[in-house]
Amino acid sequence: MTEELTPVPEDLSFGAALAELEQIVKALEGGQLELEDSLARYERGVSLLRACRAKLGDAQQRVTMLIGELEDEESE
Amino acid sequence: MSLVRTVPPGPGWGAKSLSDAVPALSVSDAMRLAKRALEQLSLRVVGEVSECTVKPGYKAVYFTVRDEYAVLPCLMWRDAFDACGLDLRPGMLVEASGSFTAYAPKGRMQFQVRSLNPAGEGVLRLQVAALARRLEAEGLMATERKRPLPAFPRKIGLVTSPRGKAVHDVIRTLCRRYPVAELVIAGVQVEGEGSVAAIVRGLQTVADHPGVDVVILGRGGGSYEDLMPFNAEEIARAIAACPVPVVTGIGHEPDDSIADMVADYRASTPTAAAESVAPARDEIAERLDAAARLLGRALAHSVRERAHHLRLLAQRPVFRDTACLLSARMQSLDFTAEALNRALPESLRLSQDALARMRDAMGRSASHLLDPHAARVDASRTRLSAGGMRFLERGERSWDLCAARLEDLSPLGILQRGYAVCYDETGSRVVRSIEDVRSGDRVRVRLASGSLGCLVEDARTES
């Protein structure tokens, strides 16, 4: 694992983080890894998991208006 | 038209064969024949509604449509009429689909309407269908063109009216399902004059916004005419040219708009469109939980397996009995020591003999080694002493010469030749100038044999 080349989980998009996490689970389940590698991937997996959960939990829908102004529903 | 064709050709022959071969019919039978023939004729008729009778409790709705030269009585069964949802009024231009029939009790031919639409819309539908065929022929609606939607969009573009339900339906749905994605909205006019250009600009604006990876084109429900902008060719082309997938969620209209056909995915409503572009929060949470469980389990399993492997290794004989690891080497050490013991005395004796032989040889050769050196030392000594004598003789001769020369240079020698030296009274300072003395001073004059005490009478400069 080239730990220093892989981006920190917080910098990944949600989809990329989830995809990497599931990849790690698959590799660990395969059981073909060195123990050190297993531990490194496990750690990476845990941090990805934490980042994903944080993103999902904390997210407030961000809405940007490029054109026009949003009006309340009642105004219709 | 088909009625005409059933009549045999040739008026004379036809009239004759009819009257001869077939007996005369009753009025009922004649009407029955006419009704059966009329009902073969299925068609669409466009005309203006003149009279109409829409009364609650009646099984059918009766109206007439007309054009400049003809009138057509129509009836429509109540169920079908209610289903078409048209508010029928005199003067309205309608398109009626159905077939002719006859009502025997009144001897009346009428048109039985199955479906009824405003006629303006009918024309529009024809135009839309033609455009759809053209775009389809161009390949704009081909299945291969449809792009897959991103599983986890980062930013979702939305082009819709900033007013009304649709925009809020989308916001609410995304909030609930996938608040991770940012929503980028172009609030544009979606019906009436200028709406097509506004929608096209909206599509381009959100698609150009950095990070947007899917676009929703949404519109709440409306009549066919309200939804017409979504059948515009410009919008179809803007959707096809959009660099990211486009999902339509337009109205509740049963027919697909052209935008729907060209879009990468067609959802039935704005809410459904929002659902289609974002994964459900619960599903993701479930996937994360599953990943967390599997992650721990996989690592634990991996460690357990290795621990087991280690235990197996630890039970091997080499680790249980260290002596067995060393026994072979210990034994070979013993053998070596024994061999060494045997070999040592013999080896020592051999060495002693060799040493003795070497001592004798050295004794014999030592004197021969010294002889040449002794001869060289003697010769050197003789040469050295001879050189020394020569050096001394030369030195003595030089000494005599130097002494004679020294004699010549002595001031006393000069006095011997008649010179005198004048000192002051004390005899310590030589008087070199007349300035050094005055008349009446005493001076001492030194000659070779002794000195004279003298009195200076005068001092004169030698002219």
What is the fold's blueprint, element by element?
The complex is a heterodimer of chains A (76) and B (463).
Chain A: H1 14-30, H2 35-58, E1 63-67
Helix pairs in contact in A: 1-2
Chain B: H1 2-6, H2 11-21, H3 27-38, E1 42-53, E2 60-66, E3 71-77, H4 78-84, E4 93-103, E5 108-118, H5 119-138, E6 155-160, H6 165-177, E7 182-187, H7 195-208, E8 212-219, H8 233-241, E9 246-250, H9 258-262, E10 265-267, H10 270-277, H11 281-314, H12 317-320, H13 322-409, H14 411-416, E11 421-424, E12 442-446, E13 451-455
Parallel strand pairs in B: 3-5, 6-7, 6-8, 8-9, 9-10
Antiparallel strand pairs in B: 1-2, 1-4, 2-3, 4-5, 11-12, 12-13
**Largest interface, counted by CB within 8 Å of the partner chain's CB:** A-B, 40 and 44 residues
Number of E-state strands of chain A: 1
Tell me about the biggest sheet of chain B? 5 strands, mixed, barrel
Order of helices and strands of chain B: HHHEEEHEEHEHEHEHEHEHHHHHEEE
Averaged pLDDT of chain A, please? 80
Cα radius of gyration of chain A in angstroms: 19 Å
Keywords:
heterodimer, A: 76 residues, mainly alpha, 54% helix, 7% strand, rod-shaped, B: 463 residues, alpha/beta, five-stranded mixed beta barrel, 13 strands, elongated, disordered N terminus
Structural features, described:
The complex is a heterodimer of chains A (76) and B (463). Chain A has helices at residues 14-30, 35-58; one strand at residues 63-67. Chain A starts with 13 loop residues before the first helix and ends in a 9-residue tail after the last strand. Chain A is mostly helical and 76 residues long. Chain B is 51% helix and 19% strand. Chain B has helices at residues 2-6, 11-21, 27-38, 78-84, 119-138, 165-177, 195-208, 233-241, 258-262, 270-277, 281-314, 317-320, 322-409, 411-416, and strands spanning 42-53, 60-66, 71-77, 93-103, 108-118, 155-160, 182-187, 212-219, 246-250, 265-267, 421-424, 442-446, 451-455. In chain B, α6 (165-177) runs parallel beside α10. The radius of gyration of chain B is 72 Å and the shape is elongated. Chain A binds chain B through residues 13-16, 18, 21-22, 24-25, 28-29, 31, 33, 35, 38-39, 42, 45-46, 49, 52-53, 55-56, 59-71, 73, 75-76, and chain B through 150-154, 162-165, 167-168, 171, 174-175, 179-180, 182-188, 201-202, 205-206, 209, 281, 284-285, 287-288, 291-292, 294-295, 298-299, 301-303, 305-306. β1 (63-67) of chain A pairs parallel with β7 (182-187) of chain B.
